[in-house]
Amino acid sequence: MIPADAGAVLVPLARFAIEDRLGLTRGRAAPTASWLGEPGATFVTLTKHGELRGCIGSLEAWRGVGEDVASNARAAAFRDPRFPPVRADEVADLRVEVSLLSPATPLTFVDEADAVAQLRPGVDGVILSAAGRRGTFLPQVWEQLPEPGLFLAHLKRKAGLPASYWGPDVRLERYTVTKWTE
């Protein structure tokens, strides 16, 4: 069982994974806890001066939460295709956020209007699958896109689909997160 105060370990673990890859840990050990081997799906979001600097995660719990956080932190810092790899001189300016995802549950809807009406702004993370594409927005994205129709249109574009795309192949799932930020 992952405790409610897990962020006190997970956020420093994410930062440690990034600093360790850059050779900045100077003999420090990674944070540990007995529950880090429990399965968990996480996203690690990096910002620099309030701007997104990287965000990578897992939608399903398929490995221990500690390994998931460390791997996603390194991926957000060094392999997010939207950004160049983080440099050692940037680390002090990074803000690390870890989101622990609940299991995703499918939405049942009759059309796009029905799907949009079921979305819970500020609560739901949403996974969209259609036309062989897949994309997700964490619940935090509602802060920038508070209107459900606009949120869904942007999610379609993130998945590589036109914002107006809709068809019988559209699948939506929702999840919630517990998040911790430095």
Strands, count: 8
CA(first)-CA(last) distance: 23 Å
State the helical fraction.
25-40%
Share of β-strand residues:
25-35%
What strand order characterises the main sheet?
A: 2-1-3-8
Mean pLDDT: 97
Major sheet: 4 strands, antiparallel
The CATH superfamily of the largest domain is Hypothetical protein ph0010, domain 1
- CATH class of the largest domain, named Alpha Beta
Query: According to CATH, what is the topology of the largest domain?
Result: Glycoprotein, Type 4 Pilin
Number of distinct helices: 4
Tally of structural domains? 2
Derived from helix and strand composition plus strand pairing, the structural class reads: alpha+beta
Radius of gyration (CA) equals: 17 Å
Structural shape: globular
In the predicted model, the low-confidence regions spanning at least 5 consecutive residues are none
Q: Judging by the overall fold, what is the CATH architecture of the largest domain? A: 2-Layer Sandwich
SSE succession:
HEEHEEHEEHEE
List keywords for this structure.
182 residues, alpha+beta, Dna Ligase, domain 1, 2 domains, 25% strand, globular
Can you walk me through this structure?
The chain is α+β, with helices and mostly antiparallel strands and 182 residues long. The chain folds into two domains: 7-101, Glycoprotein, Type 4 Pilin, CATH 3.30.700; 105-175, Dna Ligase, domain 1 (2-Layer Sandwich), CATH 3.30.1490. It has helices spanning 7-21, 65-78, 112-118, 148-158; strands at residues 41-48, 51-57, 94-101, 105-106, 125-130, 133-137, 171-175, 177-181. The strands form two sheets. A four-stranded antiparallel beta sheet has the order 2-1-3-8, with helices on one face. The chain is globular, with a radius of gyration of 17 Å. The two termini are 23 Å apart.
